Amino acid sequence: MNILLISEYILIAALLFMMLVALRLTARRSISDTLIGCSAFALCTGVILVIVGDIFSINFCKDISLAIIFLGVVGTIGYAVVAGRT
User: Fold this and answer.
1) What b-and-e string marks burial along 34-47, b requiring 16 or more CB atoms within 10 Å of the CB?
2) What fold characterizes domain 3-85?
């Protein structure tokens, strides 16, 4: 087994753990914790898609992950603007 492939699997495991932490952070009552958790979850999802696409040679994973990362940031900023008005 290639050392690069092993490191990619370790990175996927670490990102899955980070996604669990982000979900726990999202469940708190504070708006800032929720925003940070949602952004971290979107970022982890995008990075995992890039890695899985690289491992299995799936071409469209990079496009989908780029859209998830950009729309996650836009959604977070939009939610912060709406929550700041109330």
Assistant:
1) bbbbbbbbbbbbbb
2) Helix Hairpins (1.10.287)
